[in-house]
Write a structure and sequence with these properties.
The chain is mainly alpha-helical. Among the domains are: about 130 residues; about 270 residues, no CATH class. The chain contains 21 helices and two strands. It has a two-stranded antiparallel sheet. α5 packs antiparallel against α10. The chain is globular, with a radius of gyration of 23 Å.
Length: about 600
């Protein structure tokens, strides 16, 4: 079975190559059907491998096995978390392709199938990153994933905003990738290895009596900088709202549904395999770094989400906030925290992809994603979309029995103390913003708010389809409904939480797995988050001035300047802060 793992990458890449070679000779429906079949086949393979991932599988691609302990081959790992992320990426790609069935304007003959081909390459790159067992090939798939994401973000190349958003995305993420590559070079110089497990053992063997040194700290900072840029953690996050504002809706479903989560997964995988030993970074320093950056990310993302009127930007900042919650849960370095984040991530993927799908319906029905301009315009229309948008908001709040609620409850118990307040507040504020949009756009409640300074409205967006839709295609309604049902299933399916916990802990510590189940405090906190979200939405609708950004929020909003030079500067600041947070343990050793 382990010999099949490389096919998770090969099948979608070969499918994309086939579409590029034959697309101009195929009718559009044949090209899209080919991409759908290839994506579905990859998803089915990922699920089959996932069901057979205990014990974890390891494969040296092409049979290039280590000789006398030395390896030059490509290592792929088929444990639960790796194959789970590959399955998630494949299923969301399948959902995005189904959503975008005959979605865009009829392309020129020489571009038939180009969007589908790019989506397949994106799927293959995400699967490759998930199962990569050595750092260099993780970087290769990291870059392939990024390059394709740039092209997909700027797919509507005739629009200046799309090109600018893609360039910003490309420059910031490329700098993160270069940082990661330099970190890998330092680790290779120290250990002579690229396989993650071998690097970890090499660092432990090379560690002196004083523990890790400055080279280990530098490599840690550089590698995690690259991963945190992909995860859109503060202050590396600025590219994400700009990219989401211009990317086609199916692409947004993947960017927020799985690509950002792969950054958090990469942090978990790299630290646990490479830096967790005595020759790596002390646990207390990793906890300090991730919990600090995670809490800052959650708070910043929630505040910025609340003060958005551009619906796609609002959802993007919600992703930033939840990324912060994932990092806090991973940072406490407990099996319970890992289990909770895994479930939280799965539930969030379904909910967030569904919300972006609903936002796409608004864009293509009314030609706008401006909460103010859309006030009341969908009243009496798009009833199914309205219900799904409201349900998605409640799922984002962590209302039981959503998978987000189960993951959030387990993670809150793991982090404990004041961080529980951060979880409740961030989830309630981001969900309240979504419910506020529901009340205004779909129900027409409250007066229309006035404009404010430093706002990006979203009123000048162009529909992504051939024009304003008089009838919403069934695929654009069925796909978000299925995604929300999947997010519910994560919390409702008997034994699913325990299965995820066992898989995560077998891949992590290898010890006994924690029991992931509903608890009364977790249910009560989930209900409290949902009630708080409803209260915030009600206040915002009844008192529009209450949503206006206060004076202290204006500088925070100005930071999202749209100037790539500013974002690069913040990337350097973030790398410096990350190093400073991890430095005390190095000095102490």
């Amino acid at each position: 079975m382990h010999h099949l793992i490389p096919l998770l990458v090969a099948i979608p890449l070969l499918g994309a190559a086939l579409l590029v070679a034959t697309g101009r000779h195929l009718p559009r429906i044949a090209a899209e059907l080919t991409g759908f079949v290839v994506s579905a086949g990859t998803a089915a393979l990922a699920l089959i491998l996932l069901l057979n991932s205990a014990p974890p599988m390891v494969e040296w691609v092409g049979g290039w096995l280590p000789v006398d302990g030395e390896s030059v081959g490509i290592l792929v790992v088929g444990d639960g978390p790796a194959l789970g992320m590959a399955a998630l990426a494949s299923l969301l790609t399948l959902a995005a392709l189904a959503y975008s069935w005959r979605y865009f304007d009829e392309p020129p003959r020489d571009r038939t199938g180009s969007f589908t081909a790019l989506m397949l390459v994106f799927q293959g790159a995400m699967c490759g990153f998930a199962v990569a067992g050595d750092l260099f090939n993780a970087f290769v798939f990291f870059e392939l994933m990024s390059v394709v994401a740039y092209a997909l973000t700027g797919y509507r190349i005739d629009e200046a905003k799309a090109v600018q958003g893609a360039l910003t995305f490309g420059i910031v993420n490329s700098l993160g990738a270069y940082a990661m590559l330099m970190g890998i070079a330092l680790l290779y110089a120290r250990t002579g290895e690229l396989a993650m497990a071998k690097i970890g053992r090499g660092l432990d063997a090379a560690a002196g009596p004083g523990g890790p040194d400055a080279l280990v700290l530098a490599s840690f900072v550089l590698v995690l900088t690259g991963l945190l840029v992909k995860a859109a953690a503060v202050p590396f996050h600025f590219w994400l709202p700009d990219a989401h504002a211009v990317a086609p809706t199916p692409v947004c479903m993947l960017l927020s549904g799985v690509m950002v989560e792969l950054g958090a997964y990469g942090v978990w995988r790299v630290y646990g395999t490479v830096f967790a030993g005595p020759g790596g970074i002390p646990a207390a320093d990793l906890t300090r770094a991730l919990v600090t950056l995670g809490a800052l990310t959650a708070v910043t993302g929630a505040v910025m989400c609340w003060y958005q009127r551009h619906i796609k930007r609002l959802l993007a900042y919600s992703t930033v906030a939840h990324t912060g919650l994932f990092l806090v849960g991973l940072g406490v370095l407990t099996p319970e925290g890992d289990d909770g984040v895994a479930l939280y991530l799965l539930g969030h993927a379904g909910v967030k992809a569904a919300l972006f799908a609903c936002a796409g319906v608004l864009l293509d029905r009314f030609g706008s994603v401006d909460e103010h301009a859309l006030h009341g315009r969908a009243r009496g229309q798009l009833r199914a979309t309205a219900v799904m948008f409201a349900v998605g908001g409640l799922g984002l709040a962590g209302l039981p029995p959503f998978g987000t609620a189960l993951g959030k409850a387990i993670t809150e118990e793991a982090v404990g103390g004041p961080f529980t307040v951060v979880y409740v507040a961030a989830s309630a504020i981001t969900a309240g913003a979504v419910l506020r949009v529901t009340a205004r756009v779909f129900l027409g409640l409250g007066p229309r708010p006035g404009d404010a300074e430093y706002e990006t409205s979203g009123s000048d967006e162009e529909p992504e389809t051939s024009g304003p839709l008089r009838r919403i295609p069934d695929t654009m309604t069925i796909v978000p409904a299925v995604l929300l049902a999947a997010a519910l299933a994560v919390g409702l399916a008997p034994g699913f939480g325990a299965l995820v916990a066992r898989s995560v802990n077998e891949a992590g510590s290898g010890g006994a797995h924690a029991s992931a189940h509903w608890t009364l405090p977790g249910v009560l906190l989930g209900v409290a988050s949902a009630l708080l979200a409803l209260a915030l939405a009600g206040l915002a609708v009844s008192r529009p001035g209450w949503v206006a950004a206060p004076g202290w929020a204006a500088p925070l909003r100005r930071l999202q300047s749209g100037h790539v030079g500013d974002y690069v500067a913040w990337l350097l600041v973030g790398a410096t802060v990350l190093g400073a947070l991890a430095l005390p343990g190095i000095l102490g050793s």
